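Researcher: For the record, we're logging two predictions in this thread. I'll number them. Prediction 1 follows.
Model: Prediction 1, sequence and structure:
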Amino acid sequence: MGIVTRGFRGRRDREEVALPPGQYLERGFPVLSAGPTPQVAPGAWSFTITTETGGEHRWSWEELQRLLIEDVTVDLHCVTKWSKLGTHWRGVSLDVLLDGVATTAPYAMAHSYGGYTTNLPLADLRDGQAWVAFEYEGQPLRPEHGGPARLLVPHLYFWKSAKWVRGLELMPTDQPGFWERAGYHDYGDPWREQRYAGD
């Protein structure tokens, strides 16, 4: 199943590309991290959804691989102003992982190995908008890009696609994550240039 985000229409020349405001087209894949790269072996990896009542739903690496896996084609937009178009990923939709999770929480905090966090409305993780991704361009996701698995939320700036993701905490009220506490925008819509608080 292929998923395509806004602005992707196949092979294009630089002049034909529709990018969000203030973005430039990047052919490489820059590596940007706030700290050291965690080294997490797939066998030691797990993903846990914790509800607002403390209920836990947990998947090991092997259990994740047995779920419905999707091939996804999306554009990426980084708050540092680069955009990379037509990237190919494989992973499990958050719709699959949230199926059967009883919650009324409207918000989620993504937690990563290494301590990174980022907050998102739960609605932005549903309806085919987000994945736990573990392959990029046909290869296992490398640690510097968030491997063994990262959150992939391509309709928001890329800092919301938490690297080295290990779980979601479902929350009744919104709380800022790592970059949001440092002054980044709470939501991060690249088409509205929501880079920093107040944008």
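Researcher: Logged. Prediction 2.
Model: Prediction 2, sequence and structure:
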Amino acid sequence: MTLRWPKIPLGLRLFSLYFVLIALTAYLISQTVIQELKPTVRQTTEETLVDMANLLAVLAEDAVANDQISESHFSKLLTAYGQRDPKARIWEVGKKAINHRIYITNKQGIVIADSWQQDVGKDYSQWNDVYLTLRGKYGARSTIEDPDDPLSTVMHVAAPIYHNNDIIGSVTVAKSNRSVQPFLDQSKRNVWFWMVWMSALVLIVAGLFAWRTHSALRKLEDYAHQMGKGQKAEKPAFRVFYEYDTLSNALEEMRNQLDGKQYVEEYVQTLTHELKSPLSAIKGASEILQMPLPQAKTQRFAANIERESDRMQALIDKLLELARLEKRLALESVSVVPIQQTLSEITAAADARLVAKSIDCTVDATPQQSVKGDPFLLKQALFNLMDNALDFVSPKGQIRWTVRSDATGIALSVFNQGPHIPDYALPRVTERFYSLARGNGQKSTGLGLNFVEQVAKLHGGEVMIDNVPNGVAVTIKLPTP
């Protein structure tokens, strides 16, 4: 058993690829930014602590040199600093306590001043910040206060106190990493927020691009299918995807070449077939006329030649007219066509034939009823319907034009009183060259109703032919202008 890959639309495949790439990129970037955020903040904090420690070391020089730090004004200021309430709000993070701890040691590493007033007199000589600083090196350390709490680490940075170029003590500024954690958390949330929003925006753009790509391919696919079925199809246009527009032009050019060849072959075949009958009649009549005949028979066969010649001329004219119509994909001249006025002109033109057959012709339409389309083509189609009704209406019968309109469109119906169309012929009466015998036994070109159908389709409508009581009704349904 052969396994087949499921058929997934190209647009969905493109979007899935975009989604994976965007999600992976967003995750990697956000993780990198977040991982770099913490050490960057700590480096910035340490740099600030270095400046602060050196400033305090300069300010504390005289008090430490005179061994009067405990009674000095500097010590009082240090104590007051540790007790201040800043009541600050930094980037939506509240700050209600001083997080810096400052302590000063003498040159033996003994704490002689503490802003928190808790470790005065203790020996800090072995702590790296004090130990290294008293030896002229950069002293710093990070100490965890609670092994179970990773946020309990405290960063200590010390600066030497100089007097006469000798180190007489150190100043350490300590800051808990917990105090900067709210800013880290806020930054992480901001990174995730904007990363999600930007990813969503990019995905929306990617989705639109994938949808447009898929829809463009669907248009080309539908266009190719319609061409394959021989249907009229308007070439799709693409403003952004010029490659698709190039392909669309190539398909149209191929269709025109194929259609032209097939069109000529079909018309040559059908024209040859349809011309056989009148040519045979003309040839037979001409052969008979070459023999001695009475005057009456001579006129009869001469009339046959004239009638069949007229039939061939009508066939050729109709074919040329229909060929021009079938090549049109859209209307060239569009205007509002008043129905009542047009039907009045058509019935007036047929007045002689109506009188000759004693036909009662009525028009049920109002001046307000109209359609939007090509006036010439619509009038020609209605002339064809009138001729068709006159050919099949019973002597002293009735032809009735009825126009009905609603919100969806307008329906033009012509009824001719006479025999029904045989059931076998009803689905085929609009086919090219298909015709039924008239009352006089003659057949038409079989192109009239096909022409009417082509005009209706060009206007976005349809033609319906039905047997109704006492006759036949042909209806053209057109959309509302």
